[in-house]
Amino acid sequence: MELAELIGLRPVPAGGVLVTLTRRCPLRCSHCSTGSGPLVREEPEAAALERFVSSFTAADRPEVMMLTGGEPLLRPGLVASLARSARAAGTRTALVSGMFFARSCGLPAPVRRAVRTLDHFSASLDLPHEREVPRAAVFRAVREIRELGVAVSFHLTGTGEDDAYLADVTADIDRSFGGTVPSLVNEVRPFGRAASWARPARTVPDGEGALPCAMAAWPVVAFDGTVLACCNQDTVDRRPVPPHLLLGHVAEDDWSAVRARSLGSPLLRLVRTVGPAHLRQRWSPGTPAGSYCGDCRLLAGLPEVVAAADSLASGAAGALLDLTAARRQHGQGPVALVRRHGCAAYAGLVAAPGGGRDPRPATEGAGS
Ligand code: SF4
Ligand code: SF4
């Protein structure tokens, strides 16, 4: 499964599920917004996760399950069992890693066994990561993973399109992998790598119009097993969860219940269709503007907005509205989605020309 297909599915409601396996991480990146580190212990119970994933069926399943953290490969046995269980229902599995294991020579056996069960592997790389794990070691490990037959990509983070680091690392990846490995490039914002893959859009000034939230499409399993409507870091971390962003818990709910709640919520349908800023401006104009996600977190407490959502987006008409918006965004493709949610200047890198196949001879290491 290539990165472009994965990102292309991001606006499809319940087209994927994002599962955080642990908040633990052997690294201590200075920009880590999940507060991950070697001594942190918070993680969902393996049995609850396995039960939840085993509820996927051929007829009712996400297309893709994205495993993240913290560092998901600290639980390699769980990665493998979840990926196998998901595959039995037809769901493909992707994983994003901070690459702690690249510091050793060759893939450690448990990591190798886990990686073999994946359909896509993405390596995080940015300046704080490179202070923990050298770029050359990450490149070497990514090559080894690709030789196992797993599609690979990089998840890069920088300060914006003028960031010299991004210019350097993208050129280095291009040189070192012959233009065959795609990258997703994000900008550093108050949300960290656990948000993964794409970030909520920026603050929307009044009068800007509709700006749909594609991040409200995939349910997210948080570190405590709570299932949320999106990967916004405040939503992942803060309790209580605003009612419209709460979809259940892996210890109690199966995929079918979570999917039904996500697809059936009138408020979430409108967040996915027109975005939270538009809802606030249109139906609660007296409420002061906040950030894009700040606006969203308030929505369930604004009676005028809730009433408008019930009247406009309930029933079959609301489902059709949601489906139409998702199809439009899906049809615009992964590059357009990254332009909106990631670093626009590098959006084209989400689809590497070679699609991971037939690489030209690769050079070894960073800066080569
Ligand atoms: S940013 Fe990622 S790799 Fe770095 S400490 Fe946080 S979870 Fe670990
Ligand atoms: S808080 Fe709302 S707007 Fe922000 S990512 Fe979540 S669903 Fe989207």
Structural description of this entry:
The chain is α/β, with parallel strands linked by helices and 368 residues long. It has two domains: 217 residues, Aldolase class I (TIM Barrel), CATH 3.20.20; 95 residues, no CATH class. It is 39% helix and 12% strand. It is built from 14 helices and nine strands. The protein has a nine-stranded mixed β-sheet with strand order 6-5-4-3-2-1-7-8-9. Helix 4 links the parallel strand 3 and strand 4. Helix 2 packs parallel to helix 3, helix 10 packs across helix 13 and helix 10 runs parallel beside helix 14. It is globular and about 60 Å long. The two termini are 28 Å apart. The C terminus is likely disordered. One iron/sulfur cluster binds next to loops. The site of one iron/sulfur cluster (SF4) has 14 residues, from helix 12.
